[in-house]
Every structure is written in structure tokens, then in C-alpha cells.
Amino acid sequence: MIFFVVLKDIPVLKLWRDVVIILIFILGKLRNSKVKINSTFIINIILVSLNIIYIIIAPNIFQAINITRVYLLPLLLFESIRNLHLTKNEIQKIAKLVMYNTIVVCLYGIFQAYFLGPTFLIKLGYETNIKGNLPASFYLSNYGGSSIGRSIQR
Questions:
Q1: Is pLDDT above 70 for 146?
Q2: pLDDT of the residue at 144
């Protein structure tokens, strides 16, 4: 949410997650330069090749690069995680941290939705629809004309 609001006017800087994933991948490859040729490696090479071909033949190169980024970064993250050699204790610590983070985010979400309300997000600069409200995806059961969900923010 912070990066969405703060970096709204600088689209390139909103790619900070992508930069982190690429750095993790590069650092992992520098630590372990061995390339294991297995079925996953072959599938990844095929997917990378298809994305490169798509960039070459696409009518809009910037859109093609963005789509390629969307498809290739999960592959980089997968390869980075697959090559980690974590102990059981380290995995348990990571799982605990993820759970704590999830709890904090959920509590903040409940606080924001029920106490601060949608106007808080609008003041931060989130996009609104024609009526000046947050889009339907911010509310529960807003599809199919349900009147109950239109006032309950997710």
C-alpha cells in the first residue's frame, strides 16, 4: 500500500519487488554456479525462449516486456528457492515469521476496513470509480447485485 501511494508517479520504482527477486537469483547463482540439467531446467529454458520470441514478434514491445516480466519472475523466484539448502529449524523460523506477518496484516486490514473505512484509502490516493467510490473489488459480494456486500469492505 505504501509503495502504491508513494511511488504512484514513478512507475519504474514500483518494480522494487522484481529487483529484489532478481538480486536474490543472481546472488544465489554466484554462490552456487553449478547448473543442473533436469526436467525443470529444460522447461524453464523453453519458457524463457517462448518469452523472448514473444518480445521479438509482439507489436507493442513495452507491453511484451511487461508480460515477460510477469511470467519470468516467478521462475526466478522458484529457482532461487529451489536452490536454497535450509535446515528444518530455519524453515520453522520462516514459517513462524510468515504467520506473524499474516496476523499483523489481517489485523490491520480489519482495523482499516471497519474503523478507518474506504475514505481512508481514497484520501491516500487509491483510484475510485465514476461515483467516487472504491472499485467493486474492494467490497464483499458486490457481484450479482447483492445489496448486503456493497457496504462491507474486504
A1: no
A2: 45
